[in-house]
Design a protein that fits this description.
Length: 325
């Protein structure tokens, strides 16, 4: 679906829009040891996951690099681990490989059974409330919305960042849900518009910032890391980053004069100090990028150079300002 980015961007940033996420995943964790199993695999304190609630946590390697980011949802007798788009199969295999012979736990990839729809925009909540949601999700809670007689879960899309909602719909009701959202006044948007919106919001994304090049703390996922939690894979590295101030690079925004692409170098004089992870042209702010940059150069207002052409850029605080300063 190709849409005119200007009105769609305006609708999404000022009103409400939706996007059906491709390759969205849904991993079901069952068994009486499901909480303790996830506790030793991921960065957050799974004991904080409340009945019917949600919790963000990161699956990390032994060197604390990002393998996946899960939104955990307590479904009562099971926990849903919602991975990054395209990661469900790999993460399911990884989790299965971590099951000890004494663990009473099951891991099932149920991605084919569900469609996930991202809802974005300041008016989304009021529209959903008008159309009958049983309470909007807030601060780690989950909501319920009935679409075509199907019970759907409504979650905060990215709770640490406060960006949007996630509607989890049974696959057979996906088209009906999209029609229902359109009739409710929520406009469809395409991947290009979503990319602009999430970069404006400073939201890290699969395949860009949420990759194995970085640790959670280097891309702004502090809210998904429990400082005082016991042992999990990668915990020692993250503990050193926290205790000894070893987070030497961080995610920041860049105001540019010309577009930049993922992978381009960020320079200070002749020294490479970072890498562009995402780049777009915003209809309201012009060329923007996200980058992971070494300190102290990731502080707002710092002047850097980007790419082979060494175009000048200014570091921005995230999310980007509504009007370019």
């Amino acid at each position: 679906m190709s849409l005119d980015p200007l009105p769609v961007h305006s609708a999404a940033s000022q009103h409400a829009a939706f996007f059906s996420l491709p390759d969205s995943g849904f991993i079901t964790i069952g068994g009486i040891d499901r909480h303790s199993f996830l506790q030793r695999q991921t960065t957050n304190d799974v004991r904080l996951l409340k009945p019917g609630g949600q919790l963000f946590t990161v699956l990390t390697s032994a060197t604390a690099r990002i393998l996946d980011v899960f939104c955990l949802v307590d479904l009562g007798e099971t926990i849903a681990a919602i991975p990054l788009p395209g990661q469900s199969a790999a993460s399911s295999r990884f989790l299965k490989s971590r099951i000890f012979f004494m663990d009473k736990v099951t891991v099932t990839d149920d991605s084919a059974q569900y469609t996930q729809i991202l809802l974005w925009g300041p008016q989304t909540g009021s529209i959903l409330e008008h159309w009958g949601t049983a309470g909007l999700p807030l601060n780690g809670t989950a909501g319920v919305l009935e679409v075509a007689r199907e019970r759907c879960s409504l979650l905060e899309y990215w709770y640490p960042f406060g960006s949007g909602y996630r509607l989890i719909v049974p696959a057979q009701a996906a088209r009906t849900a999209e029609k229902w959202l359109t009739e409710a006044g929520i406009k469809p948007m395409d991947a290009q518009t979503l990319e602009i919106l999430r970069i404006e919001a400073g939201l890290p994304w699969a395949g860009h910032e949420l990759i194995s090049d970085y640790t959670p703390l280097e891309v702004g996922l502090l809210a998904a890391v429990a400082e005082n939690k016991g042992c999990y894979t990668g915990q020692e590295v993250i503990a050193r980053q926290v205790s000894y101030d070893k987070v030497t690079q961080g995610l920041c925004g860049l105001y540019l004069n010309q577009p930049a692409s993922q992978g381009e170098a960020v320079w200070v004089q002749e020294h490479r100090v970072g890498t562009v992870t995402s780049g777009v042209i915003s209809p309201r702010l012009g060329p923007l990028a996200l980058a992971v940059v070494k300190r102290p150069h990731f502080e707002a207002g710092a002047q850097v150079l980007v790419g082979e052409a060494k175009q000048p850029a200014r570091v921005a605080r995230l999310p980007f300002e509504p009007i370019r300063p």
